[in-house]
Please model this.
Amino acid sequence: MIEWKQPAFFLELLVILTSSLISVVVFRRLRIPDILAYLFAGALIGPYALGLVKDDENIRLFSELGVTFLLFDLGLEFSLPRLLALRRSVFGLGILQLTLTIAVLSGALIWFGGYSAAASLVIAGALTVSSTAIIVRELYELKLGNRHHAQLSVGVSILQDLAAVMLLILIPALGVTPDQPVYEQIAWTIGSTLLLGGFLLGVARWVLPHVFYEVTKIQSEEIFVLTTLVIVLLSGWLMNSFGLSMALGAFIIGVMLGESEFRHQVEASIRPFRDILMGLFFASLGMKLDIGLLSGEWSMLLLGTVLVVLCKLAMTIVSALIVGESLNTACKAGLILAQVSEFGFALIALATEVGILTTDTSSRVLLIAWATMALSPLLIRYNFEISQVLAGVTGRRLSARDKESEHIPPDLAGHVILAGYGRVGQMIGKFLQANDIPFIAMDIDSEQVKRGRKDGELVIYGSCDRIELLEHCHIGRARLAILTFKSLKEAQRVVSKIRSSGYVLPIIVRTQHHSDYTGLIMAGANHVVPEMFEASLLMAAEVLTMLGLAKAEVEEQVDAERKRHGHLKWTSARQS
Model:
């Protein structure tokens, strides 16, 4: 009988994937980014902890492929029109914030840490770059993507991603041997990058569309996926052959394919490989984390984390104030950008590989970066409250009403407060105006505010989740308030605050979903309008009517469905 011996690499790969799977499941339950889950899994099974996996050449190969696909994905998402649309934040605030933060961090590392200029530049660059993935995900979940400070933060993070790409180009040049002049290596690196980059841009612009067009004729998903993989790996191999980063070639190809008609199909086909390889990359980085440092140097690492967050926050605030942003916007943007990016990990890994950083140094930096990413969701979710605290330190209270107070008539009374001035809000306002009922509207979309003011309406910028802004709209003298919320918990908190402050006006709450009516009614809402629920009932009623059912019978079924969900009972109980 033949005995099959399992290779050590197979077992190590199995351990990495299993531990990563468990970590990701647990971390997602805790609403912690997946990147931290992979880093934790790698640190746990790595040589500094359980020692189940060794950081060998095979694992490093997979991790390098992970960086390559990471940059390829960034290239697909990169959009020159989008960058130009955010040019004020990118070329103004972004460049200033990036320059000041790198200068302060690298200067501190040289002066107080005794690091070399090359090591200080790499560490500062890695810590300065913020995670676009975390920022966009958190802002999307919190429904804050269209706010001004959120758009500024996204624009700055895009610029930082591009800066990370440039550092990936220069790091090999910074790690040259003493007998090789640095300026010659930098010149060779830049020249090679421009030459090969131009070649890849030409291929991606004029050749690859024809290649994908011929591939799509075959109508085979497997061939399309294989073609995409070959193109990404070929671009990386070409760059690597000239001593450059594989990831750079993949990024260039990704940028060009991102502007083509095949972008979405390419992105969908490459995603499974990208996610797995990126997971292996971050797990391999986790293996370099010396957990023992936490027991011996935890106080210094904690101090380092706090200093990095404060430095990035301070430099963002200073930069935003210089370009003319308000202190409110500056503080919020600084809190959003306070974490370290996944590209920072890639920079540290490459710098360690070429000898710029020692293993101990990279482990300390990675632990600090890990901690900033763990703090990031909290900093983003509570940026307004933290900004209020920061304002207290400066002796100035931040409020959404600061710039809007001049637009609100001091004698406004007998009006309706209309929170949300989109299509629904504008329609309500039209009926109010037709019946000579005054109203004041608010919206977090600056374009909606501009259009409303242009039409002569009383519209201000702000959100109804701030009780201070509602008070500034003279809620005590208002006849009715129509409040729109994305979060039911936030709606319950604000309504409770209004009632506890002694305001007795009727309140209509608009929500997207139809759950937890009881909490809103008990908090003090007079009526709750679940938009998705009501829209579905309206559509169902139209369907039944078109199919020949009597209108009275349809209305009876719709009312029964509302009653089954408790909606009629709860609203009528409050109104009575």
Q: What stands out?
A: Confidence is low (pLDDT under 50) at residues 397-402, 568-576. The chain is about 70% helix and 5% strand.
